[in-house]
């Protein structure tokens, strides 16, 4: 993923896919993401991220994403691992 790219990560606390932006690439498989564009930084590996294109192409992911977007709020995702 490219720095600045919009991606989705799975929130363990909310049990749904959430939006994030790639802030830094630490290695070939580890990224620092900004959760919901609020400055909440977290480490994530490639297996935990999906690009917008991947979400659009997979019908099951599209359906899950649509279900998860109902009742969205802007609270921080405090239960997930944060970068430090």
Q: Can I get a quick summary?
A:
The chain has 84 residues and is α+β, with helices and mostly antiparallel strands. 19% of the residues lie in helices and 37% in strands. It is built from two helices and five strands, in the order E-E-E-E-E-H-H.
Topology readout:
Blueprint: E1 6-11, E2 16-25, E3 30-35, E4 40-45, E5 49-51, H1 52-57, H2 59-68
Give an overview of the whole structure.
It is built from two helices and five strands. With 84 residues, the protein is α+β, with helices and mostly antiparallel strands. It has a five-stranded antiparallel beta sheet.
What key phrases describe this protein's structure?
5-stranded antiparallel beta sheet; alpha+beta; 84 residues; globular; 2 helices
Taken from the alpha-carbon principal axes, the silhouette is globular
Strand order of the largest sheet: 4-3-2-1-5
- What string gives the helices and strands in order? EEEEEHH
Number of helical stretches of at least 4 residues: 2
Structural class: alpha+beta
Low-pLDDT runs: 70-79
Helical content band: 10-25%
Q: How many runs of DSSP E, i.e. beta strands?
A: 5
Q: Roughly what is the average pLDDT, rounded to an integer? A: 80
Strand content: 35-45%
Rg, Å, rounded = 12 Å
Sheet with the most strands? Answer: 5 strands, antiparallel
